[in-house]
Amino acid sequence: MIPSKFDYLRVESAAEAIAALTQHGSEAKLLAGGHSLLPLMKLRLANPEVLIDMGHIDDLRYIRDAGHQVAVGALTTLDDLTSAHLLKTAAPLLATAAATVGDPQVRTCGTIGGTLVHGDPAGDLPAVAIAMRADLVIEGPSGSRVVSADDFFLGFLETAVAADELLTEIRFPKMDGVGWSFQKFNRRAQDYAIVGVALVSGGGQCGVGLVNMASRPLRSEAVESAVRGGASYEDASEVAADGTEPSQDLNASADYRRHLARVLVGRALVEAASRKH
Amino acid sequence: MAASLVEVHIRINGSSTTTEVEPRQLLVQHLREDHHLRGTHVGCDTSNCGACTVLLDGKAVKSCTVLAVQADGREVETVESLAAPDGTLNQLQEGFRFEHGLQCGFCTPGMLMACTSLLANNPDPSELEIRQSLEGNLCRCTGYEMIVRSVRWAAEHRAGREGEK
Ligand code: FES
Ligand code: FES
């Protein structure tokens, strides 16, 4: 289907985008890669009156070495993430997870900022941001602020980015030899994960992000504290469903999702240990 | 609300074009309706099937999920760009012909463009790499086996490889 009518505004910088948002308020929507928004607009589930196209803001498309972090511009495409040399050593979890999102055509268009701001509990990269304890830089009319991944994902398709704000950068701590794993369980290649797990562990730290185990992207506090307390892989994976509230749908019952979370966390712990160096 | 028309400049199959479009026009509609390039198909219209795959600045995209205005200032290649003007098929198309990579042919333009993008980066892909790069393309006829073989045929017969063993 064709989206309903809207006015089209192209912006060339983050500042222009914020000015446009301030002017048009809740009638406006930002367009990045469009692979979450355009399908919703085609189904007429989203009907913005003004579409603000950020696709030409090249300044927000970068992957930079920033000391102990890697800074990624919000308009960096998923395809850029999978091929970036820096990420192969500094954040392999991010590159690997990005390579499983959708399919190649989707990754050409889809952006990291778009997928995070969409806040889909079934998204892969929100779980990575949680596991890696990423910081998210949000800019608005009164300047910029930095929010942790835990404070970013607030609810179903809801994030800390206000209507007149824009996510501009995501900062991932460098992984530097820490073990990691990304587990995604689905039935067909291009599908969303039925359940997924992003995990980093080693050097006394542990981060676990769960895909599709609640109405928002979720941290598994239970697994993290079990691992930090020296639990065996079996014992740590046993608690993977604690504190989760999985939904049920045609693909899986809530119970089956809990089962998958335990199995996938177990596999992730084993794989992460094999990668530690 | 009367949304105004937007002028877009898109280089399509090597020719510069300038067209006024409604901002909500999809790239696939733009190609098929404004430029009469009907080789690009609409299978699902929901970014699943890949029949609408074209190259945007050399990379495969699903043109049912891109607005024409997003392609402004950029380069688009469609299935019509593959064969020579006299109709001579390129190596990839030859592979699909030789290995029977199509039956009804509906998915074929998208398959060809997705594979064009693959071969541009990886001229000699393994079977697994071919399958991975076709994750976004559905075929209801061939069972994929022959499509994969067609791409391998093209890789094996690519220009400059003759005589290699
Ligand atoms: S028509 Fe575009 S993906 Fe099916
Ligand atoms: S040949 Fe018929 S859908 Fe592929």
Integer-rounded radius of gyration of chain A = 18 Å
Q: What's the CATH H-level homologous superfamily of the largest domain in chain B?
A: Beta-grasp domain
Q: C-alpha Rg of chain B, in Å? A: 16 Å
Q: Overall 3D geometry of chain A?
A: globular
Number of helices of chain A: 12
Termini separation of chain B (Å)?
A: 64 Å
Strand order of the largest sheet of chain B: 2-1-5-3-4
Largest sheet descriptor of chain A: 5 strands, antiparallel
Mean pLDDT of chain B: 94
> CATH top level of the largest domain in chain B?
Alpha Beta
If you consult CATH, what is the topology of the largest domain in chain B?
Answer: Ubiquitin-like (UB roll)
Helix proportion range of chain A: 25-40%
How much helix is in the residues of chain B?
25-40%
How many domains of chain B, as an integer?
Answer: 2
User: How many separate structural domains of chain A?
Assistant: 3
List the helices and strands and how they pair.
The complex is a heterodimer of chains A (277) and B (165).
Chain A: E1 7-10, H1 14-24, E2 28-31, H2 37-42, E3 50-53, E4 63-66, E5 69-73, H3 78-83, H4 85-90, H5 92-98, H6 104-109, H7 112-118, H8 124-131, E6 135-140, E7 143-148, H9 149-152, E8 153-155, E9 158-159, E10 166-173, E11 179-185, E12 195-202, E13 205-211, E14 218-219, H10 221-228, H11 233-238, H12 254-275
Parallel strand pairs in A: 1-3, 2-3
Antiparallel strand pairs in A: 4-5, 5-10, 6-7, 6-10, 8-9, 11-12, 12-13, 13-14
Chain B: E1 6-12, E2 15-21, H1 27-34, E3 53-56, E4 59-62, E5 75-77, H2 91-98, H3 108-121, H4 127-133, H5 145-156
The complex binds FE2/S2 (inorganic) cluster (2 copies).
